[in-house]
Design goal:
mainly alpha
């Protein structure tokens, strides 16, 4: 060890999820991306959800679970109405939706556009 400047990190016994900083003046920061995207992302997501609902109706025959796909869209819409939307819940619902609509590329494209609003 050289003069007490060994800034090693030892983690054991499980998983670590989140930022880790070490050393002099080190900082680890977490940004809540749903709030950082601001109201404009919510408005854009709402517009895209409207498009998505229209596409689900137009392509209902090609979907194996159209009712569940519509329920996924409703889940996203309800979460976005919350005071503090849960990004994980939004992305989980969008992931389910993209699986349910995998055969309809135009729906998957809109789902992808919505997902990109919540990096």
């Amino acid at each position: 060890m050289s003069g007490g400047n060994d800034y090693g990190v030892h983690i054991s016994g499980g998983n670590v999820s989140g930022p880790i900083a070490m050393g002099p003046h080190a900082r680890a920061t977490v940004h809540n991306t749903v709030h950082n995207t601001g109201p404009a992302a919510g408005v854009e997501a709402g517009r895209l959800l409207d498009v998505l609902e229209r596409l689900l109706t137009e392509h209902e025959a090609a979907l194996t679970e159209p009712a569940r796909a519509r329920r996924d869209v409703g889940d996203v819409r309800r979460e976005l109405e919350e005071a503090e939307p849960d990004r994980s819940r939004i992305l989980d619902a969008l992931k389910r939706l993209s699986v349910r609509a995998a055969e309809v590329s135009v729906i998957v494209e809109v789902v992808s556009q919505i997902q990109s609003l919540f990096p």
